[in-house]
Structures are given as structure tokens and as C-alpha cells.
Amino acid sequence: MEGCCDLEVDVNGQETFMLHKKTLVSFSGLFSKLFVNSRSTRNLKVIFNDFPGGAEGFELVARFCYNNGRAAITPSNILLLNCAANFLEMEGNGSIRPNLIDQTEKSLEGIIFWTWSELLEALKQCQDLLPATKSSVVLQNILDCLIGRLALPSVASPFACSSNNSSCKFSCDTISTDSLKNNSSQLTWWFEDFLFLSVDMIDGVIKTMVSQKFDQAIICKFLFYYHKSRCLGAAPAEKQRITKVVVSLLCLLDRSSLCCKGLFEIYRVALGLKISKFYKNKIESLMGSQLDQATIDYLLAPSPHGRDYSYDVNLVLRLVQAFLLECSCLSSTSRLKKVANLMDLYLGEVAPDSHLKPSKFVALVLVLPDYARESDDHIYRAMDLFLEVFCNFAMFHFLIDGIIYCFALDKRMASSLLTINDVKEDMLQIIAVSYLKYSALKCMSSF
Fold first, then answer.
1. How confident is the model over 136-151, as pLDDT tens digits?
2. Which residue, 28, 220, 327, 413, shows the most beta carbons closer than 10 Å to its own?
3. Angle of helix 377-390 relative to helix 333-350, nearest 10 degrees?
């Protein structure tokens, strides 16, 4: 048989096939173009360096050609056949010859009967065949079916099917009750199955989920799980790539679906990887949008290397500003009050830090609008702590003398509107203390 062959095809350096030129030309538009003007009687050689699916994929289409346009199309080979057929331009172009591209796409009509494991196997093939499958109709059909299947309480293929141009047998593939019980939630049973997805493939999967209105809180949980699992044991460069993709995908989700704890965990990983400022800002924006969910432990991040102060005050200021930007759109007073309570606790933690600059302390006090707090008691306590640590004895008296002088001027101005007898003595003391505190802030901000 080989002695009659007039075409040698080298596929990706993996294997060389001896074939009949006429047989391939009758089904492949690419081979037709290659040999349209060829009158050579000598054996010809074609070398493919990037054939999708390699030698296995080429052998499948060669068998299709030698079998007069018939192939056994199954869930396990449909991707290979489709990609190879597209590469070799086996669309028929209106001729009566069998069209492999149409046959593979027609076979997808039975995709709803594929089992869960068959769908996953097909998705793995899509990943192996990237970038050839990136814009494939087959890939999108598989994604649509997989994600649609996730909404079901169990995954099952109820019956088998077969067709004239394909022989495909599908078996029942139901997730057992025991398997479901072993998972923390039936809504997240599929997380482990999707861990094989590369960062290139996960992008398309999540975007399809979002377009199909899949539960975004579940998507968020999966992305955190995916990030944590895939980063384990990965090289720093791969960790950084995974983190960038996950952060970009989290930005597609509704802010109400995000989990504050997971965002802070990703941020800590990102800092260790020295991720670019662009992605760092993206994560901080997401963290800030959910600041009302945070606890004080989340905010007590250590200061950057080379800084004397204990905690990363600049990070907290950026997060509050991000929250205010988000909150201004939502007009949520309750969320703002939660952040105010959190900031009061934070002020109490950072106030005793002797290395904290007065300007930073003032910025923390003033970062929220006045109406965010019902009481300033916590601020006053934090200021007491800070002044005790920050001011030496002479400086403290200098500040107090200056503040009392300012207060005396202010009191004289107030006397024109309100006589001293009209105000109770204890009320004057409260006003005096309040003014001292406020003036102290202004004095400190100048240091």
C-alpha cells in the first residue's frame, strides 16, 4: 500500500503518514489549495508544525477521508475531529462531498444527553487544543451545557443515543447521594471537578457563567477556592498569573456577591508576589467596597518593609476612600455606620504607636464624614492615647497652652451670642473639652 502512496505528511514531528494525495484533496480545502497547480509525478511532502491534536487528530481525519466521509463521532473525539477539520478546511464549500465540520457540529445536537464526565472530558480536550478551540462553536456548546447542568440537583444522562454518521453510546452518570453528603454544600459539589482548568480556560468559563446569570456568590466562592488550590505548590510566576486572572474575574461580579475575607486573603498573597500596582489597586477597590463586612483583624496589616510604624495605615485610608466611593452610589447609612465603628476600633489599636505620624492619625480621624458617627467618644479616647505617646511633657504643655488660648478667643466670640449665665457649668466643660480635642487635631496636622 505504501508503494502506491504519493504524499508524505509530517505531523508536528510526532509521526509521518504515507497517504494518497487524491484522497485527501477530495475532502480538504487546504490540501486542494496546496496541490492545485502541482503537476509533479514525484512523491510530495507536507510538514505541519502546529496541527491541532497532533498525530492523533490527523489520523482521525485521515480515516474519515479513507472511509468515504464517515467517522465514528463520540464525546471523546468530537473536539479533535472538529479542530482538525477546521484546520484542513473540510467544510465542503457547497459540494456534494461529506462535510466533517458540519458532521461534528451536528453531533452536538445530542450534547444534552452527554454525561457529566463526558462533558468534562470534552472540556479537557478543549483546553489541550487551545488556542485552536478558543473561538470554537463546539467549546461554547460544551460550556453552555456544563453550566446549565450545574443548576440541576444531580447530574445525569437519562438515556443513550446513536445516529447514522456517528456511533455514540452515553451511559447514566449520576452523582451519588453519599458523594453529595461528603461536600459542604450541594451548591459547590463541582468545585473540585473544575480545578483542572488552566488560567486561559477559566476566563471563558467564568464569563459564560456570568452571561448565563449563574449565582455570582457561588462564582465568587469558586474563584477563591480555585485561587487557593491552584497556588499551592505553584511557582511564583504561575501564582502571579493565577492571581491576576482571578482578580480580573472578580471585578466582573456584582459587589454584593463578594466575600471580604477571601479578598483580604488574595491581597496578602498578591503582596508576597509583588504584583503590579494596577492589579493591587483592583484588589483594594474590591476590598474597600466590602469594608463594612471586615473585622478589626483584617485591617491590622503590618506596615510595608522599611517603615517604622506598626500597621499599614495608608492601606486602611485607601480602603475607606474606596468604600466611600462605593457607598456614595448606594447611599447606605447602615453600612457607613459599620465602617465608622470599625475605624473607631482601628484608631484605638494604632493610637499607642509611637512611630505613627500625627498627620496620619489626623487623616484616620477625618477620613469619614461627621454624620457617619453618632458619638465621638471613641475618637476622644484614641486621641488621649495618641497624645500621651506622641507628645513629650514640654510639647504637650505647649499644645495645651495654644489650644486654651484659641478656645478663650472662641469663647469671647460666643459670649456675644450667649451669656455665660445661660449655660450650665458642666455644659461649658463639655464644650471646652470638645474644642480642645478638635483644636488638638488641627495642631497635630501641622507637624
1. 778 888 999 999 988 7
2. 28
3. 20
**How confident is the model at residue 426, as a pLDDT?**
40
Q: Compute the distance between CA of residue 338 and CA of residue 334 in angstroms, rounded to an integer.
A: 6
Question: If residue 364 lies in a helix (H) or strand (E), which one and from where to where?
Answer: helix 358-366
Q: How far apart are CA 232 and CA 97, in angstroms?
A: 51
The pTM score is 0.76
Write the pLDDT tens digit of every residue in 401-439: 444 444 444 444 444 434 434 433 444 444 444 445 555
CB 348 within 8 A of CB 385: yes
Q: Which residues contact 81 (CB under 8 A, 6 or more apart)?
A: 57, 60, 61, 64, 71, 73, 100, 104
Cα 9 to chain center, whole Å?
43
Tell me how long the chain is. Answer: 447
Contact 288, 326 (CB under 8 A): yes
User: Closest Cα partner for 157 from 165, 146, 143, 166?
Assistant: 146
Q: Which residues contact 119 (CB under 8 A, 6 or more apart)?
A: 75, 111, 142, 145, 146, 149
Report which of 90, 102, 88 is spatially closest to residue 50, judged by C-alpha positions: 88
Displacement of CA 138 from its chain's centroid (Å): 25
